[in-house]
Amino acid sequence: MFDAALIRRIDDESGKIDLGRLADTLLFFRKTQLTLNAGSLGQLVTAIGPETVLELIDCGTLGITIFHQYTAVQRSIENNLPLYSFVLFQFSGHKDKLIKSPKKAAHVHFEECMRREGISRRDQNRLLDRIPLTSLNRRVDIREDVYNACEAAITKSPQICDYAARIQIEDKFGIADNRTYFRPIKLDRGFVFDTNIDFSRLNQNQTDRTKWTLTEENILAYLFETQLDLALAASYQSGLVTVDGHARLIEARTDHLVRNAMRSSREVESFQEFLLPNLKSVREAINSGERSFADFLKVLGQAEKFKAWISNANPDQNLISEYTQAVTKSDFFDRVPSKAARFSLFAGGGALLDAFGAGGVGTAVGLGLSAIDMFILDKLLRGWKPSHFVEGQLKSFVSPKGR
């Protein structure tokens, strides 16, 4: 369940880069796959540095794909009726210099985005050596897996559209109203809407902070973008880690397989809330500025056993139950009644270590073992448990500095 995760956006819904969500995912999943556009990659490289990005790719922890196509909802007028349809588009040059070749246009756009972020040509080339620049249509069937699948979901559960509208209105304007409805109606060449949303009134009440206008296109795009999240996660055979609004919308859907795509992400949140009460999560610690991404990389470097344990967790049990069983599991050393009694086991010359497979090393060491710290003995005989990482490196990272 925790083998791989997909992140399609590195920013949150306000447009701010969310390094905390990336760190959370890198820590709890064996492999994290990012699917970005060139501009988003530029933001990431600027935030954590090209060397860090390349190092994460080279060690197999992170995979990145750059899609040179963008998704949008297009509004057109036919017979005095506004119609809305889902479209793909890509950069094709500038007004005074169009580029006919899609492949060449994609590389020009990549270079422009990197240059705008101040990334050198040398680092651009190193990134392109490791990161494929490709078409979204080569990864998923946009017509079948996104457009038709979204239309089917709307037809099956029309209330999901109401919920998409309510999420956006609540997030952007702070207004929660369960009477809001927004129902797309499919025609041959696009969608029309039946809604009670007063778009003009809402947008007049926006604050300078939001700088955002709610439209029919926004809400329909929200539905399509969420379906694209799911299609890409299925294509990469990964769990989905997405922005909070998309996650809430997916949770509201009735189809089990769709909701199951979010299960691992939910369990990461619950796991941290349960084991780190009154402390920030990894995501919160980084996004608040309490810890840096460079601080996090030191923790990540010591997390291999923890990630392996999570990856092998029973998918039919929740992560908290698995953790509790692993930490409380009894073994020989737990049954030794006291630290003094444990210590005495080694004063006789280390024969016990031989019994555990030390091949004579324990006997050869003899009484020298009696000076070993009891914590080290615990680790030698009990072996590694996930609590070693959680109670050590992880709790230290999310605790306030100075504790």
Describe, in short, the structure shown.
The chain has helices at residues 19-28, 38-48, 50-58, 102-116, 121-130, 142-156, 159-173, 199-204, 216-236, 244-252, 256-260, 263-275, 282-287, 293-300, 304-311, 319-328, 332-335, 339-347, 351-358, 361-365, 374-382, 386-398, and strands at residues 4-7, 31-36, 62-67, 69-78, 81-90, 93-94, 97-98, 133-134, 182-187, 190-195, 239-241. It is α/β, with parallel strands linked by helices and 403 residues long.
Would you write up a description of this structure?
The protein is α/β, with parallel strands linked by helices and 403 residues long. It has a domain at 330-384. Helix content is 54%, strand content 14%. The chain is built from 22 helices and eleven strands. It has helices at 19-28, 38-48, 50-58, 102-116, 121-130, 142-156, 159-173, 199-204, 216-236, 244-252, 256-260, 263-275, 282-287, 293-300, 304-311, 319-328, 332-335, 339-347, 351-358, 361-365, 374-382, 386-398; strands spanning 4-7, 31-36, 62-67, 69-78, 81-90, 93-94, 97-98, 133-134, 182-187, 190-195, 239-241. The strands form four sheets. A five-stranded parallel β-sheet has the order 8-3-2-1-11, sandwiched between helices. A two-stranded antiparallel ribbon has the order 4-5. Strands 6-7 form a two-stranded antiparallel sheet. Strand 4 (69-78) and strand 5 (81-90) form a beta hairpin. Helix 3 (50-58) packs parallel to helix 5 (121-130). The longest helix has 21 residues, at 216-236. Mean pLDDT is 81; it is low at 331-377.
